[in-house]
Write a structure and sequence with these properties.
631 residues; mainly alpha; 23 helices
């Protein structure tokens, strides 16, 4: 059995072995520890271990003694080294104190020297700053001279012919003046502002001379625009672009351009009117003067094409003038078109005055209204050319209204002389035919779309006005006509309404209320026909006399006469009475309605007579069914 000491030794050995296994074996301290263990714990058999333990205990004590000896040796060595370090730090402290004394001596010397040289340093600093400021002013003066003073070479360039170098120097001169103006705002002091003002005045003088020279060159180059197809250089466009900044000079150039182009356009228009194109192709416009629509249309088309060409020419000419507004270009274009205003106005006025038929006048009116809207979109509205075209359109519209009113007055006057057949006068058919032609031309045309878009007076309004006037006056004349019965006057009015509804498209003029007039006249005619039948029947519709022999005889005579009239179909024939209506469908409807209303009243009379008299006249009276069949 192992003793407790052996078990503790084995446990201690196991823990050490486990620690050794867990650590690397190639470390020097690990090797030393292993060698010590191997020396201390040498392998002994079990029998030997049990017999004696003295050598192991002795060796353990020797190792502990050696470790204590080694620890004391290390401590003594550390104390010796620390004493050496202490002596070194003592020497270092003496050196630092010596250095500190020297530094204090130097600081006192420096303060003494600084107090002596303070004034000299201040003066030197002031002189240095003054020198730096003078150098800066000198550099600035040289820079100003280079930047704001025009060289002799550049001055000569501005006086020579116009080329790319001229525009380069002119741009540089403009830039110099703008920068000088900015410098004038930022300068301080009277001397600085006076110097900048002198520079600015000199630059302004050079600039004015340069732009005047440029204007003279532009005016000389504008002379080439007096051609039908002018060609101009890029430099002319550049020159106009430079002149935009100088309003007075630019206005002078624009006035000259408009005058030259106006004269050229006038000459070209007269040539197109009288001579035509080169070698007679196309033919002169005045060669078609007999055809009013073509003559006016060709003139307006030529002016429209010339307007587009002039606008393209002006856009190209002022392409380097972005600040020129569209309104100014439109004004310039309108000034150019004044060259054709008077010749166009004279010829169109003569053409309109010679027209006789409303349809021909309307064709000219439609052309003028269409081109007036086209020109108004290209030019300013309040210009002589636009006013001339608009006045021509108004003249054509007035001529159309005058022609239609003349036809209407003739139709109204002729309606006082109506034939027994109730036929309408030929003048009324001419008026309605003219209105129908105008409506047919107007519907679907571009002028109709323009009128609806611009919300202005249209041809429809004029036709409605003329038609309402003609119908109102014709109806008044018919109602005052002598020799016509009331129902004949109603039939004549219905004939007028029938002609209007059949000639004109009623859906286009719903505001005329043709159907309302027709319904009113039909109801009045039906009432008058019923009253006429009651009168011709000789029957006592209004009152029934008392039952006496004399009254029975009179009633019997009336009944016999009424029966005879129904059988002969003469006086009580409604279809014969309305046969003079031009609209047979209306005549049939009116005849049926009048017969039905008369039969209804006759049925009431029949009941009264049958109730009073059972024999005599009551037996002779026909039944309402028989009367309805005979009517």
């Amino acid at each position: 059995m192992q003793s407790a000491a052996d078990r503790r030794a084995a446990g201690s050995l196991g823990r050490r072995v486990q620690q050794i296994v867990q650590h690397p074996l190639d470390r020097p301290e690990m090797r030393t520890a292993l060698e010590s263990l191997a020396t201390t714990y040498s392998y002994q058999p079990a029998s030997a271990a049990t017999t004696t333990t003295t050598p192991y205990t002795q060796k353990h004590r020797d190792i502990r003694h050696e470790m204590l000896e080694h620890t004391h040796n290390i401590d003594r060595e550390f104390v010796n080294k620390l004493a050496q370090v202490n002596s070194i730090f003592g020497e270092l402290e003496d050196c630092v104190q010596a250095l500190d004394q020297q530094c204090q001596h130097l600081r006192a010397s420096i303060n003494h020297t600084r107090s002596i040289t303070a004034n000299v340093a201040t003066q030197a600093s002031l002189l240095t700053e003054e020198q730096s400021e003078l150098e800066t002013r000198q550099d600035l003066a040289q820079l100003l001279l280079q930047k704001f003073v025009l060289s002799a070479k550049d001055s000569q360039t501005l006086q020579r012919q116009i080329d790319d170098e001229f525009f380069r120097v002119l741009d540089r001169l403009d830039r110099m003046r703008r920068e000088c103006q900015g410098l004038m705002v930022g300068s301080r002091g009277e001397s600085g502002q006076q110097g900048v003002s002198e520079l600015l005045s000199e630059l302004a003088q050079h600039q004015d001379q340069a732009y005047k020279h440029l204007l003279r060159w532009v005016l000389s180059q504008i002379r080439i625009l007096n051609r039908d197809t002018p060609e101009f250089s890029m430099r002319l466009k550049q020159a106009l672009g430079r002149l935009v900044a100088h309003e007075a000079l630019f206005d002078s150039a624009v006035v000259e351009i408009s005058a030259i182009r106006r004269e050229s356009l006038h000459r070209a228009f007269i040539t197109a009117l009288t001579r035509g194109g080169p070698r007679g192709t196309p033919r002169p416009i005045e060669a078609h003067a007999a055809d009013a629509q073509r003559f006016v249309g060709d003139m307006l088309a030529w002016v429209h094409q010339a307007c587009a060409s002039e606008r393209e020419l002006l856009d190209t000419l002022f392409s380097h003038s972005p600040s020129l507004q569209t309104q100014a270009q439109q004004q310039l274009l309108a000034n150019v078109l004044e060259g054709v205003s008077r010749p166009l106005e004279i010829r169109v006025q003569q053409t309109i005055a010679e027209l006789q038929t409303p349809s021909a006048v309307y064709r000219i009116d439609s052309l003028l209204e269409f081109y007036a809207s086209m020109f108004a979109s290209m030019c300013l509205p309040d210009t002589p050319f636009i006013r001339a075209v608009v006045q021509l359109a108004v003249l054509a519209r007035d001529k159309l209204a005058q022609t239609l009113n003349a036809l209407a007055e003739t139709a109204i006057a002729d309606s006082a002389h109506i034939a027994p057949t109730l036929d309408l006068p030929e003048s009324l058919h001419l008026l309605l035919g003219a209105l129908a032609d105008i409506v047919h031309l107007y519907e679907g045309s571009t002028t109709m779309a323009l009128a609806e878009t611009e919300s202005k007076s249209t041809i429809a309004d004029l036709v409605k006005q003329v038609l309402e006037h003609a119908y109102s006056e014709t109806r008044s004349t018919i109602m005052q006509a002598e020799g016509l019965a009331e129902y004949e006057k109603r039939m004549l009015e219905l004939n007028v309404l029938s002609a209007v509804s059949s000639t004109l498209d009623a859906s286009t003029y719903k505001q005329l209320d043709i159907s309302g007039h027709v319904e009113r006249c039909q109801q009045q005619l039906e009432a008058e026909l019923v009253q006429l039948l009651k009168t011709k029947s000789h029957l006592p519709f209004d009152s029934i006399a008392t039952e006496t022999q004399e009254n029975v005889d009179v009633l019997a005579d009336a009944v016999n006469q009424f029966n005879q009239s129904l059988k002969t179909a003469m006086d009580l024939d409604i279809s014969r009475l309305v046969s003079r209506l031009s609209n047979h469908m209306w005549a049939q409807e009116i005849s049926q309605h009048a017969a039905r209303k008369f039969t209804e009243e006759y049925a009431e009379l029949y009941k009264q007579i049958r109730g009073i008299m059972e024999h005599g006249a009551g037996d002779l009276l026909l039944t309402p069914e028989t009367v309805a069949t005979l009517l």
